[in-house]
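Reading group handout, session on sequence-to-structure problems. Before we discuss, look at one worked example. The prompt was deliberately terse, the way you'd type it at a terminal:

> structure Amino-acid acetyltransferase, mitochondrial

The input record follows.
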Amino acid sequence: MSHLRHLSSSPSSSWSEIQNQTVGTTGPTGPRSPHSSPSAEAKQKREHDREFLISVLESSATKRDARAYLQTFGSNLTGTTSTGSGPKKPSATGAVVLHDGIRAVPDVPRFVQGPEKEPAAQVDEAPHVAIVKLSEPQAWDDTLLDGVVKTLTQLRDLGLVSVIVVDCHVDQGHALDWQSAMAQQTDRVLRAIGRYGLPAATVVDSGIWKSNSSSGSSRSLGALSSVTPAGHFVGCGASFTTPLQHGHILVVPPRSYCQETLKYLTADANDVVFALASFFSGLPIPEQFPSGKEPSAEDVDQPVRRVVVDRIIVIDPLGGIPSRRQGHGAQVFINLEEEFDDIQAALNAKAQINLADTAPANVPGGLKSHHVRNLQLVRSTLAILPSTASAVITSPAEAANFKARISNSLFAGEVRTRRGQNPLIHNLLTDRPIYSSSLPIGRIKPLSPNSEILIPRMPTTTLAKKGLPLTIFPNTRAGPWVPPKPGAPRLRLTDTCIDLPRLVHLINDSFSRKLDVEHYMNRVQDSLAGIIIAGEYEGGAILTWERPFGMDEETAYSTGRLVPYLDKFAVLKKSQGAGGVADIVFNAMVRDAFPNGVCWRSRKNNPVNKWYFERSCGVRKLAESNWAMFWTSQGASLNEELMKDYENVCRNVAPSWADTKQAAD
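And the output record:
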């Protein structure tokens, strides 16, 4: 079945017109106007290339980021771009060139300890795609839609081809109105893509099918195949894979071919996105099983990957998932493994409040329930995708990179030198949000040294990943950590809940030094406050209750002078600089374990200090020592006794390294 052939028993002329456009003649820069001239087209192409270069440069990708990007998308950059743009291979000098001479910049603060190891290059010939849901495009003006499409074509130039699902939120009870709206919006998207050159866009309106609702096998297939809970699946796979192999952007209306009625029906856009994700991942479709045969684990344990889905992108007027803290905009990063249940519960609780005035009139269930559906969509799709995949939920203005034109104000937490970064391009090149999720929301930089502090515009983009489980001892669900009474039972590193060998390996690998385990165990025996572990000991923190030098434990406890101290903060080398492991651990420490503040020390020449500095409330270089002291306690610098206790602890904690030749950490 061809993807250009209409299968409906009552085809609409609107759909036929759209299909004719997909195979129509386009020039190097899209459909040519009868009044256009070669010089005007050349000027438009130069301007497009210039904006593309600026977007890549503003991503602030580090050399490590560029290397990881090239290893993933390098094989997709030849023969698929219209402008010849895209990252190049490392130069003879070893410097990575991102795009036409633009080099990676090394000054973005990241948690990286010691020398960086270059991973072995991997070549992947399968097309890399992003499944993009455009929510309510009928509410976007042409300029906004054009800006969003421009970004998607830039992603294509960078090796990531989009499969666009158009979601109009039109009342599906009126079939004619729905079909007319979908045809109109699909046409708008096609025309916008056509303005940015070849490869062309292709409409795939006959690839999604709906299984027979009376079939018991289709219901059982839902958990093991590409069939959604509503029975949708990809019935014509070649209509997707063939154009993707040629670099075409696909536009998919949310409708499905019903096997029972032999007609086209409306489909939920989220079901279409999930069906596409599961099909691309290689999960089987119903036709692969004999009628009435129940699928077994052996039938599905060797999926054939058709393309690589690297991103799920939701472009929604409501933007990202709201932060649980009032006034903080969207949640910057979501570790779905750990945070999904809490965020969903918070959104459902807020959905009980009357928010009709702030929710779009055609959004069913109100604003908060709409966010819940977006959250559930990214969770369900990422669950069946590789662990390297991620999801981005953003607003059309953010995706179009219009924020710099709307206001001169900075986003909270943005570094002054980064202007107008496109969250989608930045995420593709760095696999991170525009700024770190562990960066305090109140850290605001003025536009210039002489400008006044501006009220920040809160972020509207959320990055979600499958993430890592987080283990915290003692459990913070009962509340933040408090010092135990002297002589009371307390956590110890020898407890069965802690895998001590793996913890020691984590510390040794992170610091590239060997821990003196016996000395360290003796030192923290009676001062351990708690431990935070990310994933399978991929990152972690050990925190203690320290008392000022010379003060006994009873006095320190009774006078409230026990100091919360970050003794070890470690991330495996393979997880440093990417993946958000350091952010996950740091957030758990400052938001859950010690929300009232914690202090720590670091060598003055430690390359991680810039990362620490951005997340602390203050820093002080300790005179006549090699230490810099950091703290997250609000207003600590105004409390002279507290600062003396912090400094006393940071000066007197004994290092516990088997290697005594290097400077202590």
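Points for discussion. First: Residues 38-58 form the longest helix (21 residues). Second: The chain has a mean pLDDT of 77.
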